[in-house]
Amino acid sequence: MAYRETEKMRQRKAEARKRIMECTYECVADGGFRSARITRIAGLAGVATGTIYRHFESREDLFAEIFRLATQREVDKVAEALASGGNGAERLERALRQFAERALKSPTMAWSLIAEPVDPKVEEERLAYRKAYANLFEKAILEGIEEGCIPDQDARQSSTCLVGAIAESLVGPLSPTQTSQATSTTEDNNDPLVNSIICFCMQGLTGTRR
Q1: SS3 state of residue 86
Q2: Burial per residue of 51-61, b for 16 or more beta-carbon CB atoms within 10 angstroms, e otherwise
Q3: Which residue in 58, 160, 166, 196 has the most C-beta neighbors within 10 A?
Q4: DSSP assignment, residue 115?
Q5: pLDDT of residue 184
Q6: Residue 4 DSSP code
Q7: Residues 6 or more apart whose Cβ sits within 8 Å of residue 148
Q8: Are 166 and 100 in contact (CB under 8 A)?
Q9: Burial 165-192 (b: 16+ CB within 10 A, else e)
Q10: How far is it, in rounded angstroms, from Cα 125 to Cα 140?
């Protein structure tokens, strides 16, 4: 007779997988992917290291899953900002600010998503992450052009430039060598940095200083 997995077994497996995911996310948020060692994750999750490999084919597969989870949360926040009131330029400015402010509030996780050296599978997810932002920005730019608040331009190219500009401008402040300084500042002290990033992006997009 073939082995048939019971509902209780399926539930137990699902719970173990969830714990592994949660503990891996915690490790990455605390010290980046470099600190998320399988032995540490297994200890936090209360499972054997072999159990992790029954749920994920490799360490890279686990990290890619965590990257997808973390980036989707960030993309959703930017999408929320773009869905709020105002014209296309105002909504883009709000979304860019959301991106920058959330990154500075969680510098270790943001560094992991934006710039930390990662395995090829995770790097593929990073490219998809940047494309997801670009697609959202492109739609808002096209709406702004139609509304007349953004000059006519190649919306796809401009959206890619926005993603590159804001991500690159945050690499230095989010770097592990700067993290202790970044996390010790207040939100007000971070405002000049965020404002300068937004000013540059919006000036490039609209041709005027906002």
Answers
A1: coil
A2: bbeebbeebee
A3: 166
A4: T
A5: 40
A6: -
A7: none
A8: yes
A9: bbbebbeebbeeeebeebeeeeeeebee
A10: 23
Tell which phi-psi region holds residue 32, choosing left (phi > 0), alpha (psi between -120 and 50) or beta.
Answer: left
Question: Within 10 Å of residue 11's Cβ, how many Cβ atoms?
Answer: 10
Interval 69-99: pLDDT, tens: 999 999 999 999 999 989 999 999 999 999 9
Cβ neighbours of residue 114 under 8 Å, at least 6 residues apart?
103, 126, 167, 170, 171, 174
The residues near 88 (Cβ < 8 Å, ≥ 6 apart) are: 140, 141, 142, 143, 144, 145, 146, 147, 149, 150
The encoded tokens of residue 147 equal 């509304």
* Separation of alpha carbons 123 and 114, rounded Å: 10
Among the listed residues 43, 207, 35, the one whose alpha carbon sits nearest the alpha carbon of residue 111: 35
Residues sharing a CB contact under 8 Å with residue 1, sequence separation 6 or more, in sequence order: none
Instruction: With beta carbons less than 8 A apart as the criterion, state whether 175 and 117 touch.
Output: no
**Which position has the token pair 């930390």?**
116
Rounded distance, CA 133 to CA 120, Å? 20
Beta carbons of 112 and 164 less than 8 angstroms apart: no
Q: Which two tokens stand for residue 192?
A: 């000049």
Rounded to two decimals, the pTM is 0.86
Q: How far is CA 201 from CA 11, 34, 194, in A?
A: 48, 31, 11
**Tokens coding 51:** 């159990």
Secondary structure string (H, E, C) spanning 103-145: HHHCHHHHHHHHCCCCCHHHHHHHHHHHHHHHHHHHHHHHHHH
